[in-house]
Amino acid sequence: MYAGKGLEDAKPLTLTDFRKMRETGEKIACLTAYDASFAALEDAAGVDLVLVGDSLGMVLQGHDSTVPVTVDDLIYHCRAVARGLQRAFLMGDMPFMSYATRDRALDSASRLMQEGGAKMIKLEGGEIEADIVDYLTARGIPVCGHIGLQPQLIHKLGGFRVQGREADAAEAMLKDAKALEDAGADMLLVECVPADLGKRIAGQASVPVIGIGAGPDTDGQILVSYDILDITRGRKPRFVQNFMQGAENVQAALGAYVEAVKGGSYPAPEHCF
Ligand code: KIV
Questions:
Q1: So what's the pLDDT on residue 242?
Q2: Is residue 174 within 8 Å of residue 203, measured between CB atoms?
Q3: Nearest-angstrom CA–CA distance, 226 and 250
Q4: Residue 143's beta-bridge partner residues?
Q5: Which domain holds residue 64?
Q6: Considering only CA atoms, which residue is closest to atom 8 of ligand 1?
Q7: How many CA atoms lie within 13 A of 261 on its CB side?
Q8: Chunked in runs of 10, what are the mean pLDDT values of the chain (273 residues)?
Q9: Residue 39: what pLDDT?
Q10: Which of 64, 84, 201, 229 has the fewest CB atoms found within 10 Å of its own CB?
Q11: Separation of 224 CA from ligand 1 center, angstroms?
Q12: CA-CA distance, 123 to 262, in Å (whole number)?
């Protein structure tokens, strides 16, 4: 059992712990949170990494994309989440265009860490962002590079679709992953790609790779908490599992998610592309 058992006195997790988990094969259980109450429940359930994602623009603010979210929004929610966490590692998302130049990236990332309490920032983009990743990591800012489906590109992509299905797109994504790692990224997040590509990216990487809709072979899994708690209305992506089903309450559902990730029963074949 992971859910809340013996975690009360646990030390805050660090990137070193995630690297060890990757080496030993222990899956890293990650979820989004946007406020202190959910953060505390996730922490107690044994979630290892909590992301304050720009998905807050959709699930909290009611926008139809993540594009309108600002750095100030992220900081507000990061601060709230930080107050709810004891053990879990806090990652903050860099909103649309907040890293369009080196100066903006440094300003946004340092504000997320200093004002928001984030221990790592995440930004969307592959090789094209390598220079920014290099600039930030050289200055001591831990970075997670988000590849595969990049929701901030929704208006360019024209919809949320599986990425990397064709051989050349898959090769380009492997190149993106390598470029981010070479630029100093400490973690990669891969969204909505065929399971065999998720496996290749994790196999090639030497940093922890977290998947969302990327199959069972990444080092960890992440989902939007409102999706797994059946709060989000409307059609949900194929990779989402409703953990409220059969759970007595939210705490139990979060515990079931952590157990399913750690035990390897999530994602199941029906969640994969
Ligand atoms: O913003 C977010 O919540 C994310 C996850 C979907 C990974 O980036």
A1: 98
A2: no
A3: 11
A4: 121
A5: 15-271
A6: 53
A7: 34
A8: 60 98 98 98 98 98 97 98 98 98 98 98 98 98 98 93 97 98 98 98 98 98 98 94 98 98 98 97
A9: 98
A10: 64
A11: 6
A12: 26
Q: Quick one: which of 133, 31, 45, 132 has its CA closest to 87?
A: 45
The domain spanning residue 161 has which CATH number? 3.20.20.60
Q: Is residue 9 assigned to a domain?
A: no
Note the pLDDT of residue 11: 95
Quote the distance between the C-alpha of residue 124 and its chain's center: 11
Q: What is the DSSP code (8-state) at residue 55?
A: T
Classify residue 259: in a domain, yes or no.
yes
23 annotated active-site? no
Alpha helices of 145-189 — where are they, by DSSP H? 154-157, 167-182
Amino acid letter for position 147: I
Predicted local distance difference test score (pLDDT) of residue 159? 87
> Six-digit token pair at 81?
């989440």
**Beta partners for residue 22, in sequence order:** none
Number of structural domains in the chain? 1
Other Cβ atoms within 10 Å of 150 Cβ, number = 19
Ligand 1 centroid distance, CA of 143 (Å): 15
Is residue 164 within 8 Å of residue 134, measured between CB atoms? no
In sequence order, the 6+-apart residues with CB closer than 8 A to the CB of 64 are 58
Q: Which of 34, 49, 191, 221 to mutate to test the pocket of ligand 1 (most atoms within 8 A of CB)?
A: 191
Tokens of 254: 């979060």
Q: Is residue 167 part of a domain?
A: yes
pLDDT of residue 118: 98
Q: Which two tokens stand for residue 126?
A: 């592959």
CB 73 within 8 A of CB 95: yes
Kindly report the pTM of this predicted structure.
Answer: 0.97
Query: What does the angle CA 168 – CA 169 – CA 172 come to, to the nearest 5 degrees?
Result: 85
